[in-house]
Every structure is written in structure tokens, then in C-alpha cells.
Specification:
Length: 316
């Protein structure tokens, strides 16, 4: 996930994508309980993301990571990635699949995969499956299964059964999601970079064991930038109006503390940004919306970066 974040911001700083790639719900299995979609074209168009990408590119580590990806995979994430979609039918850590839409150098990519530990192949219908052992970046090693679906789509997951199920959806052998399904009920605002949703939260484990989420039925989130305004829109559907009212009160309380009893070192730019938060309640639904000018967000980020650099120099 950390590598994905680096790729995302680097795409924003350098990318020259010529197409938009909003979520194609028909390619997501109808049994999905959660999904996250990153639209790289919307990301590239966002002023704030561009600036973050530029700052990152001044650092040696991100530049080295980007160069390593280019050499190892034969592709340039800043130009070749269209979108990334995560989804799964289980609310469980390390479950689900990833759909990566990009221009691939398939032979170069396969050459890289063949060198990984535990490499082997199998098949699912007409599709070749490639499996290997991943032992970096996670507490314990695990198997990974990957597959190409056409020239510009790759499917990757930990569980071979989930990868095969995703392939069946892409082949039209299993149903995909439709507009109006619970995870797609929210209108996606123009300029959305990250679209996320999860349902049946009380059934989940890991990060979904939060007491708040355990009392909720649905969570939806959209993050992006449009007309020089950065926005975050979140919606939680609680199990009952009573629970929703409690969630609203909690949110109001956190916001009040942040505004009127902030930490001593809280920058004034952050406190000003908090004025853009609005919280509403309707029956079982709590909606949190925030927006601010891209220039104000950039000012806050730049001030935070300068303070971080100053502390880093003092520590040397």
C-alpha cells in the first residue's frame, strides 16, 4: 500500500494521461462488500496532488522507487497507469483483488515475476495464472496470484479463488455490480480521485472491528478536487436512528474539540481548514462534508512541510 501511495503522487506530479478512467461497476463482482477505486486521470488534474508529486520528486527515495519500477516492470507508472480498483466479498484483512488498468510490457513483467520466490503457473479457463510468494512489506509471507485479462488489465489477489471469481466477472460468466447497488448508491462528484464504499460492516474483522463501524450498515467516501476546490464527502448509514444520532453527537464533539481546544502546536492553517466541515443527520444517515480552496490546502501542506524540514535539520 505504501508503494501504491508513492506511485499515486508521482503520477500526479509527472503523469500525462490522456483519458479518464471512472469506475466500471460491471467489472466489480456483484457480491462485493467493499471497494476502493483510484482514478489516475482525475488525480493528475488535481492541483494539490500535482504539488505533492513535485515535492516528492525532490526526495531521493521516491525517485529511486520510480526508477526501480521502470527498470523491473518495463512500464512507467507516471504515464501508463489508468486506474486501480480494489474490491472484495469479505470484510477481512488481506482479502479481495486488485484490478490494475495500464499499458503493460507483458513480456518484461512476466520476466520479473518468473524470478520471484515460489513461482509457478496454472490455468483458469483460457487464462494463465501466475503465482509467487510475497515476503516483503507484510508481517508474514503469503502467496500471490496474478493474471492478465486482455492487453490493458491485470488482476492480482492473495486467494486464487478470488482471482478466478474476478476473472469470471470480467468474462461475463458471473454478474457484476449495477448502478443502484448499495455500494454505488452515492453520486460520484466531478473530480473524484478516490471512491470508496463498504457494506455489512458489523460482519467484518480487523480494521472493521471499530465500535462505530460495528453499529453501522454502510460507509461511503469520495475524495477529490474540482473547480479549484478540494473536497471530502463521507456518509455512514447506522443500524437505527438512535445510533445515527449518537454518531452525529460524537462527530460534533470531535469537531468542537478540534476547533476550541486544539493541541498547542496545531498550525492556524489547519484550524482555518476545519471551518469547511459540515455534519448533517437524516434518519439513520450521518453525512460529513468538507471543502476548501486548493490554494488554502496547498498553503497548509507547504507550511507543514517546512516545519518537518526544520525539525529534521534540528535533529541532525
Amino acid at each position: 500500500m505504501r508503494t501504491l501511495f508513492t506511485v499515486v503522487v508521482l503520477v500526479a506530479g509527472l503523469g500525462r494521461l490522456a483519458w479518464a478512467e471512472p469506475l466500471d461497476c460491471s467489472q466489480v463482482g456483484s457480491e462485493a462488500k467493499w471497494l476502493v477505486h483510484v482514478d489516475f486521470d482525475a488525480l493528475r488534474a488535481a492541483k494539490t496532488a500535482q504539488r505533492v508529486g513535485e515535492v516528492l520528486l525532490r526526495q531521493e527515495a521516491p525517485k529511486q522507487q520510480l526508477e526501480q519500477i521502470r527498470k523491473a516492470l518495463g512500464m512507467d507508472p507516471t504515464e501508463d497507469v489508468q486506474s486501480v480498483t480494489f474490491y472484495g466479498s469479505k470484510l477481512k484483512a488481506l482479502s479481495g483483488v486488485v484490478l490494475v488498468r495500464a499499458r503493460f510490457d507483458r513480456q518484461r513483467l512476466l520476466g520479473f515475476v518468473k524470478k520471484l520466490p515460489g513461482y509457478e503457473t496454472s490455468a483458469h479457463g483460457d487464462h494463465a495464472l501466475y503465482m509467487w510468494t510475497q515476503d516483503k512489506g507484510l508481517p508474514s509471507e503469503h502467496r500471490v496470484t496474478g493474471c492478465f485479462h486482455g492487453p490493458k488489465l491485470a488482476v492480482v489477489g492473495r486467494d486464487p479463488a478470488e482471482v478466478k471469481a474476478a476473472l469470471d466477472v470480467l468474462d461475463g460468466k458471473a454478474p457484476g455490480m449495477k448502478k443502484g447497488d448499495p455500494l454505488l448508491a452515492d453520486e460520484v462528484p466531478a473530480g473524484t480521485v478516490v471512491q470508496a464504499a463498504a457494506a455489512g460492516l458489523a460482519e467484518g474483522d480487523g480494521p472493521f472491528q471499530s465500535p462505530v463501524l460495528q453499529q453501522s450498515e454502510l460507509f461511503a467516501l469520495a475524495i477529490g478536487e474540482h473547480d479549484n476546490r478540494v473536497f471530502v464527502r463521507g456518509r455512514v448509514v447506522a443500524k437505527s436512528p438512535k445510533v445515527a444520532k449518537q454518531l452525529r453527537q460524537m462527530a460534533d464533539g470531535f469537531l468542537a474539540m478540534a476547533k476550541f481546544s486544539p493541541p498547542k502546536d496545531a498550525p492556524k492553517e489547519l484550524l482555518e481548514l476545519l471551518d469547511g466541515i459540515e455534519i448533517t443527520l437524516e434518519d439513520k444517515t450521518v453525512t460529513v462534508g468538507w471543502q476548501a480552496s486548493a490554494d488554502a490546502v496547498l498553503e497548509f501542506l507547504e507550511q507543514a512541510w517546512k516545519k518537518k524540514q526544520a525539525k529534521s535539520k534540528q535533529g541532525k
